[in-house]
Amino acid sequence: MKPRAIRRALSAVLLVTLAVSTTACAENTSASPDPTLHVVENNGHRLAFHFTPGSSPAIVLDAGGGSDSSYWKDLVPRLHAATGDQIITYDRAGLGDSDEVPGPWRVEDAVSDLEAGLRTLGVTENVVLVSHSQAGEIATYFVRRNPRLVSGAVLVDASLPPLYTDDEITRLVAANQPQVDAARKDPSSKQNRQLLATADSFVAVHRAYHQVAWPDAVPATVIVSEKTPFDGSPEDAQRWREAAASFARAAPNRTLVTAAGSSHDIPVDRPDLVLDWIEKMASLVR
Q: For this UniProt entry, which residues form the secretion signal (predicted)?
């Protein structure tokens, strides 16, 4: 796999790239108070949630690996203007303004954090999840635990269970190993600690994830990029597209959409497409 493909693969399969993490943290710094900010405590750490009031459904935007709530800063005002709905973004543990949590990354902890945030904000029904890349894994487990809370989802080039065969996990671990080894030489860096936390649990997390099914009752739109995170590795790119197609075929209330010409960062490359499908899902569940 070429170096560029390795960097994109890291983001797609949870391993946090240093460049993305650094940018996300820098963008989140503000000299003035943020009226949307709500600090949520869960299991001994604090999380930054951003809440824009509106009608139902509550649209929750969850960014991919290494990115925080600032990833959605251009889409939030447009989405709120178009729908009038509640819009929620947040920084996962260790990112943006949320506390760092030591130890290997656990999807169950990420789900618990999102549950705590929605509970604190008073969101008890009719949620639409919009989940990019890594956040697709959090969404899958979240929906399984809260099928009556989530009314629908838009999965944006999301990491989905069909991808993670033993063969693909082995390929990804091998491709990522040089960056993981480099991070171990400097564990004092916050970004490197996040990378290592994810790497240390990667194999076990994704072997388990491969066996997880999305609840049939919850509709989902699956938007897959044309270039995928593996631009430069045709075999892995094809496996990514096939995983999205397989997931979409598994139930009649799922729609597969291809973002023509887009990189893995579909919300950046094709924001109008993403907004359109979020609006369609929100209209469906009103």
A: 1-26
